[in-house]
């Protein structure tokens, strides 16, 4: 019997590979002869680098970069086994987790460090990029990233505007004279799961500004500045971008990647499914296990378990999902390829207890479920 194990991480507790290992332990506890295929997954956000590096026997590259407040930190990205593909999580250099609550200020935070990661990968010979742009702390329209690659953002006096979003309204010209043209020879895929435009009530500033530290007054300033910046982008690169779905992702990073480097924005899970060769690995599988920290109605909007279930459903393979918590709306998932959704929690416990014991809880849940499944199979 072949069983494919393709979970996301249980964030704050186990990586995707650790979840897969724990599920495997539970299954082999029942029957050591199971054929197990482990595929640690992600949806383009946190854990994407680790998952794809693990799947391709690649390596994690550590780099000195600037954080959102331009302080020196150690960032990282993944180089896949082909030595030509870099996987970058924007959050590793320009993410909210790098800031204290009191430090959040999207008027000043910069995406410069993300550009440094890209530049380092170019220096190492990478020709293909997968860039996850979730979890950013910035609202600078990707200008910091472009600065790290050699672009200059000038006002009417031909002086560079400050880092961050505060002076985007003073932008007059984008100078690409010293821009690193190697990137134009690369294939760039961007993992982006939002459809927000650059500006307006559904744009980057109003939708994502509050979580980055913006109040109502600041959101208005940020939006006005991004709109001005968007018009300069469109005029400079002769490409409509302001209203393109996804342009507002990561504080406007989507717009910069679309306009300047002609990147393709795609659902994160679709990129990971393709890069992991999930469809091929599902061939001749009898059962699939997937999961993530929490499963609810939002799972169907491009989360890892939904992507896995969708692929398995094409091949008529039953799918079981494990989760730390099960929220509202999961009943709709049974119509979308899921055959069973189970919580790993086996008794009343605190969140801290479940996190501390997550590995054992996953293992034992997998053991109980496979007992039930195999018992049913025997009685057919």
From TrEMBL:
Is tRNA-binding among the key words of this record? Answer: no
Q: Which UniProt keywords apply?
A: Kinase, Transferase
Matching entries from Pfam families are given as: Gly_kinase (PF02595)
Q: Which domain of life is it from?
A: Bacteria
Q: Recall the GO molecular function terms of this protein's record.
A: kinase activity
Q: Which PANTHER family match?
A: GLYCERATE KINASE
As for family, the record states: Belongs to the glycerate kinase type-1 family.
NCBIfam families according to UniProt: glycerate kinase
Protein name (database record): Glycerate kinase
